[in-house]
Structure formats: structure tokens, C-alpha cells
């Protein structure tokens, strides 16, 4: 395997950044994960736009021209012969003597790009059965709209899920409303068939997959509301699912101890997952 580190393609086993990289010491950096499907990167412009926004919000400079970064992503996918899988991009504020204050202008951001195969397509096997999720109190900072590498709360929530035999943790806020998953956006379909997801402006990451699914929902004429929903409402839902570039549309069949519907993936989630396959024909670049 090959990784890209600060201007060079190196064997994955030797890929390293300096011990005083601010990503390592302060989690002072941002990242993106894009799906790779049939050798192409799905919705790369959407991911690069969000990377640009994350960098701006943290006043980290662009490490290279946007077109150069796009080239590197494609090149890492190509060199690793990833047909279906993911490509990971990380940009940190760079290497500098440990000090909380931003370093001087001479310090350049560090860039790492890796790719790996998943076969055949993001979570296809799991999607046939659906996954279970646990609910977990929201304990992250308020700027979850920035895709930072500071993921310790997400790590702890997802590990708690794993220890309870689940794949994902759904955070709930102080009003008992679901915000999102540890690494996914959360959706439900109510008993009357309305699809509900939390507005992107409040307490969630604006998922790229979420945006594509919203387009599909509109195109299909599925009844839809963008509003907060509570843990109780989710447990009474007809079906539920999560979205992320790494899992696409993944049906949820159990929340804590509550089995949803008949315990099998719901028809809306299954349909949207199928549609996503067609939609990505347009999004792959
Ligand atoms: N929410 C969180 C906290 C995430 O970490 C992710 C993806 O990593 C998502 C939502 C889904 O975003 P996307 O669809 O862009 O992968």
C-alpha cells in the first residue's frame, strides 16, 4: 500500500508525520472520508468544499492548490488499486514546537492521504440485515459542524456501542432529541411514512451523503420533514437508518432494546440505498 505524506508517495508502513505535528499534540486538524466506487471518488467536489469550509473555520491555510489535492486523491486511489473502498484526507496546522498559539506563517500544513479497499461496496453485507444502535448523551463540543480529527468523544460513544453489541451510537441532546451518530447522520421514518432528519444547522455535521439522500428524496417525492426528533419518537418509528460516505444508507433495525418494525431493514432505507447506487453514477468523477 502507498500513502501520500507532505508531497511524497511512500510505502504505507513507512508513512509518518513528525512527533510535534499539531494534529498529534492538539488534534489541530481536519479530515474527509470519501467513498471510492468503481475506481472513482464519489462526490469529490462536495467533500473538498466541506474540507475548505473546515479549514477556513479553523484558520488553517490551504496546503496546496485544490486541483493538486484532487490529483493526489485520484493518484492514491490509483496507486493502491482501490476499486471499491475509501480515501482518507487529513490536513493539520503543521509541525511546530509545542505551544497552544498558532505557529508563524512559515509553518505549512501537513497533508496525509491514504486509501483502502472495502469489498464489494460500503457495508453491503451489513445492509442486508441492518444494524443496531445505542443512544448516548451528547458530550461533544458545539462546533461539530467542523470535521476535525478531535474525535475522542466519538471514539468513546462508538466503543460503548460496540461493547453492547451495536454498530453505532446515536447522541441525544439535553432535550432528549437525537443529534446524529458517532460517525453518521441519523434518520427515521414515522408510522405515517414521513422521513425525518435533524436540520443541518443545529448540532450535526452537514453530511455529504445526507445531502445526496435529500436530493433523492425530493426526486422520488417521498414525504419529508427536516426537524429534530426525540429518542422516544425514534423508538416508535416504522424504520430508521444512518448515512455516511463509508456506509452509504445503512438501515437501523434496533435502538437500545427496542426492535423497529418487523426487525428487518425498512422499505424506504432499502429503496434509498438502491437509488444511491444509480445516483452515484452521476456523482463519481
Ligand atoms: N456525522 C459525523 C459525526 C460523521 O463523522 C460523519 C462522517 O464521517 C457523518 C455525520 C456523515 O458525513 P458524510 O456523509 O459526509 O460521510
TrEMBL record:
Swiss-Prot/TrEMBL catalytic activity: L-leucine + 2-oxoglutarate = 4-methyl-2-oxopentanoate + L-glutamate; L-isoleucine + 2-oxoglutarate = (S)-3-methyl-2-oxopentanoate + L-glutamate; L-valine + 2-oxoglutarate = 3-methyl-2-oxobutanoate + L-glutamate
Q: In which pathway does it act?
A: Amino-acid biosynthesis; L-valine biosynthesis; L-valine from pyruvate: step 4/4; Amino-acid biosynthesis; L-isoleucine biosynthesis; L-isoleucine from 2-oxobutanoate: step 4/4; Amino-acid biosynthesis; L-leucine biosynthesis; L-leucine from 3-methyl-2-oxobutanoate: step 4/4
Q: What is its EC number?
A: 2.6.1.42
Which keywords does the record carry? Amino-acid biosynthesis, Branched-chain amino acid biosynthesis
The superkingdom listed in its UniProt entry is Bacteria
Which Gene3D superfamilies does this one have?
3.30.470.10, D-amino Acid Aminotransferase, subunit A, domain 2
Q: Which InterPro entries match?
A: Aminotrans_IV, Aminotransferase-like, BCAT-like_C, BCAT-like_N, Class-IV_PLP-Dep_Aminotrnsfr
A Pfam family annotated for this UniProt entry: Aminotran_4
Read off the PANTHER family from this record: AMINO-ACID AMINOTRANSFERASE, AMINODEOXYCHORISMATE LYASE
Name the NCBIfam families on file.
PRK06680.1
Q: Which family does it belong to?
A: Belongs to the class-IV pyridoxal-phosphate-dependent aminotransferase family.
Q: What is this protein called?
A: Probable branched-chain-amino-acid aminotransferase
Amino acid at each position: 500500500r502507498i500513502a501520500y505524506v507532505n508531497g511524497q508517495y511512500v510505502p504505507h508502513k513507512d508513512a509518518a508525520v513528525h512527533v510535534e505535528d499539531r494534529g498529534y499534540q492538539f488534534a489541530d486538524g481536519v479530515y474527509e472520508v470519501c467513498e471510492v466506487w468503481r475506481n472513482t471518488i464519489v462526490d469529490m467536489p462536495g467533500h473538498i468544499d466541506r474540507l475548505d469550509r473546515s479549514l477556513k473555520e479553523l484558520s488553517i491555510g490551504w496546503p496546496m492548490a485544490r486541483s493538486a489535492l484532487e490529483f493526489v486523491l485520484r493518484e492514491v486511489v490509483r496507486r493502491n488499486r482501490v476499486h471499491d473502498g475509501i480515501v482518507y484526507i487529513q490536513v493539520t496546522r503543521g509541525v511546530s514546537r509545542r505551544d497552544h498559539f498558532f505557529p508563524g506563517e512559515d509553518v505549512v500544513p501537513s497533508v496525509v492521504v491514504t486509501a483502502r479497499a472495502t469489498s464489494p461496496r460500503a457495508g453491503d453485507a451489513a445492509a442486508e440485515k441492518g444494524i443496531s444502535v445505542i443512544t448516548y448523551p451528547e458530550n461533544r463540543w458545539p462546533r461539530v459542524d467542523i470535521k476535525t480529527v478531535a474525535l475522542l468523544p466519538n471514539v468513546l460513544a462508538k466503543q460503548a456501542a460496540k461493547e453492547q453489541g451495536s454498530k453505532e451510537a446515536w447522541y441525544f441532546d439535553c432535550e432528549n432529541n437525537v443529534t446524529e451518530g458517532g460517525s453518521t447522520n441519523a434518520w427515521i421514518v414515522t408510522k405515517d411514512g414521513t422521513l425525518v432528519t435533524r436540520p443541518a444547522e443545529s448540532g450535526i455535521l452537514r453530511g455529504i451523503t445526507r445531502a445526496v439522500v435529500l436530493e433523492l428524496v425530493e426526486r422520488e417525492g417521498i414525504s419529508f420533514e427536516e426537524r429534530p426528533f426525540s429518542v422516544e419518537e425514534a423508538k416508535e418509528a416504522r424504520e430508521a437508518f444512518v448515512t455516511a460516505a463509508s456506509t452509504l444508507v445503512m438501515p437501523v433495525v434496533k435502538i437500545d432494546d427496542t426492535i423497529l418494525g418487523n426487525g428487518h431493514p425498512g422499505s424506504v432505507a432499502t429503496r434509498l440505498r438502491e437509488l444511491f447506487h444509480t445516483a452515484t453514477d452521476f456523482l463519481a468523477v
